[in-house]
Amino acid sequence: MPGRNSRTYAAPMFPVQEIHKQLKKIDKNIPASVAVFLAAAEEYLAAEIIEKAAAKSRQKGLSTIE
Description:
GO terms for molecular function: protein heterodimerization activity. By secondary structure, the chain is mostly helical. About 65% of the residues lie in helices and about 0% in strands. The chain starts with 5 loop residues before the first helix and ends in a 7-residue tail after the last helix.
């Protein structure tokens, strides 16, 4: 695809800055890298849950996730 690079594909879908803002409410000294890690972990878990739900729906012969 023209105009897309590896950075575009690697961009997290979960809002890192919003997560960091929420974490700063708990402790002002939390580094941004913690928010990046947490966003990546949330994204991974969401993808796994959706993947499992899609597989179960296919097993049942459905075209959508219930």
